[in-house]
Design brief:
Number of strands: 6
Shape: globular
CATH class of the largest domain: Alpha Beta
Distance between the termini: 32 Å
CATH topology of the largest domain: 60s Ribosomal Protein L30, Chain: A
Structural class: alpha+beta
């Protein structure tokens, strides 16, 4: 049994070390599988069961945890990168396999307002199209402000901006049940509020898109 356990743990560890030769997409999935396999093997050995079986089950659990980065997600990323080129919007893949759109204030909302600016409408039109083509994804929209003004003003303003973005998308055919909104006010800055440049960076909307593993 110890021999089988050792082999199983070595195999699971190989999933992790082998990540060095993988793409980012493959690496995220394999890391989850490898961590799950190590945990499963250990559980199997400690409980007197088959460590090999534990490793296989653990690998499955690790791969299923959280979000996955599928071909659909990769295509969405490429589409949005093309749609936002030169706009100042940053499109990226997060460490937990979500697609993130970071939308700066200079194309999104006027100071103290939650009305969507014309430059952002073009981006959201394309984004709504990609969401309709991928109905299995989840969307989170988070609004942020700079530190100018009080929390009594900034907190509801950040929520209103996220809600305006959601409403724009739902008006273009995206199921509202897929979209969650939140506002962080000025509580999660990404730059110093001591400068005009820093405050401009902090006034932003972040959109996250995630696809979960389907059973």
């Amino acid at each position: 049994m110890r021999h089988n356990a050792t082999l199983s743990i070595i195999a699971a560890a190989a999933l992790l070390t082998g990540c060095a030769n993988m793409s980012d997409t493959q690496r995220h999935t394999a890391t989850g599988a490898g961590i799950g396999a190590l945990g499963g093997a250990a559980i199997g050995a400690l409980t007197g069961g088959s460590a090999g079986t534990g490793a296989v089950v653990g690998a499955g659990v690790g791969a299923l945890g959280g979000y996955i980065w599928s071909q659909h997600m990769e295509q969405q990323k490429r589409d949005m990168q093309a749609a936002t080129q030169g706009s100042g919007v940053t499109v990226s893949q997060t460490a937990d396999n979500q697609l993130k759109l970071d939308i700066p204030s200079d194309i999104s909302f006027a100071t103290g307002r939650a009305d969507i600016e014309p430059n952002l409408r073009t981006v959201l039109d394309r984004f709504a199209q990609s969401l309709r083509a991928n109905p299995g994804t989840e969307v989170r929209i988070i609004g942020h402000t700079d530190s100018t003004g009080s929390d009594a003003v900034n907190d509801p303003l950040s929520v209103a901006r996220a809600s305006s973005t959601r409403n724009y998308l739902t008006d273009r055919g995206v199921d509202p049940a897929r979209i969650q909104v939140a506002g962080r006010g000025s509580h999660e800055p990404i730059a110093s509020n001591a400068t005009a440049e820093g405050r401009a960076r902090n006034r932003r909307v972040e959109i996250y898109v995630g696809e979960r593993q389907r059973g």
